[in-house]
Amino acid sequence: MKYLTLISACWLLAACSHKPEPAASVSLEAPAIAKDETAPAGLLDAKQAGYLAPDDASSGQPAPEQKIIRTARITYSVDDFAAAKKRVAGIVSKAGGYILAETQHGDGTEKRNQLDIKVPAAAFDSCVDRLTSGVSRLDEKSINSQDVTAEYVDLDARMKTRVATEQRYLDILKQARTVKDVLEVEAQLKSIREEIEAAKGRLLYMDRQVSYSTIHLEYYQVLALSAPEAPGFFPRVGLALRNGWNNILGLVIDVIGWWPLMLVAVFLFIFIKRRWRKNNPSVTTA
């Protein structure tokens, strides 16, 4: 009995000696739990919402350059169409721009010219002011600005990600051992490169639109209705006689064009006349 009691006491002492180990493991996790519990509840939400940006401030990265596309639409009347055309060409050339497209049309009452002008963004405002200054009548002048900075930055980041992915696939292609692996990697590379080229094209287009602003210009000249545009009296009489003769000739030609119908009408007339005479002999003898 004494031996049994001694063995039990030794077993209890051994068990007590192993008890602190779980306590030590719990104490290692305790600081992380305490850190989470003591952290402010709205800190993470504020950082995600963009109110706190310590990472951006500490990174020292400059803010992205603004990408703004500017366009203007101008319509006015002029007194001298040829002088206005020469004036517009001089203003555009002095601003360092060029005429992208030009459409000129008119009738007996007015002449009109429509131009699409590209000028450097730095000279946009001054060019618009020069084009509209001194005009006889300004019908429309509107300026529009489109901020594409967010789209540009997002597209540029996506393109860089695709370029990095392309490089990883190239590394994988070097390690490919079978034809199947090579074909699968090349298919992925083809898709990624198409996306890269599309992104580059879009970025290049936006760069051009930002660097060169667009001006849609339209000017016109109203012609004087009292200005004599026709010849004198006797030439007009001769012209009327000539037009009358031409009308008669045209009518004859149109009638000749109906000869099949006229031929059928003649045959019907002869047939009906003969039948009528046959049925009414007394009228014929009289």
Largest sheet: 5 strands, mixed
Number of helices: 11
Shape: flat
Please give the order of strands in the largest beta sheet.
2-3-5-1-4
Low-confidence stretches: 1-8, 12-58
Q: How far apart are the termini?
A: 174 Å
Radius of gyration: 46 Å
Our estimate of the beta-strand percent is 15-25%
The amount of helix comes to 55-70%
Kindly state the number of beta strands.
5
Mean pLDDT across residues = 77
Would you write up a description of this structure?
The chain is α+β, with helices and mostly antiparallel strands. Among the domains are: 20-61, no CATH class; 156-210; 254-286. The protein is 63% helix and 18% strand. The chain contains eleven helices and five strands; from the N terminus they run ααααβαββαβααβααα. It has helices at 2-17, 20-38, 43-49, 54-59, 81-94, 124-132, 149-175, 179-211, 233-256, 259-279, 281-285; strands at 68-77, 98-106, 110-120, 137-147, 212-222. It has a five-stranded mixed β-sheet. The protein is flat and about 120 Å long. Residues 1-8 and 12-58 have low confidence and may be disordered. Residues 66-270 form the DUF4349 domain. It holds the Pfam family DUF4349.
